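Thread: VOC domain-containing protein, structure

OP (GT): Posting the sequence first so everyone is looking at the same thing. Length is 271 residues per the record. Can we get the structure tokens written out before standup tomorrow? I want them in the notebook alongside the other entries.
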Amino acid sequence: MIKNQNFAPLLLLIVYVVMMFHPKPVFSQKSISELRMTGATLIVKDLKVSAGWYRKFLQFSIEEYRPNQHVKMRNDEFHLTLRQGSGTLLKSQIRFKEGKKYINGIDKIGFKTNRFDSLHLYLAHYEQKLFKDTYTDPNLSIESFIAIDPDGNKIQFFNQPNNSQLYEIDPCYFTIQSSDYINTLKWYTTQMGFEEIEIVDDTNLHFQNYLTKDGIILELIHLPYESVETTEFMPLERDLAQIEQVSFKIGTAKTKAFVMDNNGNKVVYMK
């Protein structure tokens, strides 16, 4: 019979080896000198409903509420502005022109959280719809799921546990859909310093790619020709419920380097 004390050194060795060869996390800690995702603006159909959703499930606090105008919210250093649309149209209500199926623009934002399983259960308990249930992307090697907010926006959550007793969410992800894939890829690499991640699953190679910068992931989706800008189908004096803007910052400077990407998306970059 082998004594228990003989197992201790072996167990310690196994743990040490596993830690040595554990892959480096995609979302690493960022210092103030690195790129940070600092905010987003959403056009919403109902300010109270949308603000309630982000307050309840993501624990955003309300900093300013102006009825029928906007709600400014905050979680740590991330600022969320919900703007009341005019005669707001949901994406699910769009009637595409013949041959058109997709929309260019900011399609998704994402957060890593240390309460991944609890949040998933919490959303399920309140019967909140998921766009995609828990899965692990072979290119990012991290568990995630995609929720849907009251306006149909896709909000992705990534599992990053830690020892904190607090519920934490950290902005780390955004998705751009573009029918001008090559120029968009070039724009984000040259203007913001993003670098491509080597694709593991080449079945997605021709329509999806990942780029990274200081722990922030950009999912770039190449739309086919059958895609439209929102101005092609939106009636005058109506807004589309959508993610209208994402903001980024490097260091402590307050100078805006630009406010739009090559597709006309509102991507505010401070440096």
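GT: Both are above now. Quick notes for whoever picks this up: Residues 114 and 163 are 8 Å apart (CA to CA). The longest strand covers residues 169-178.
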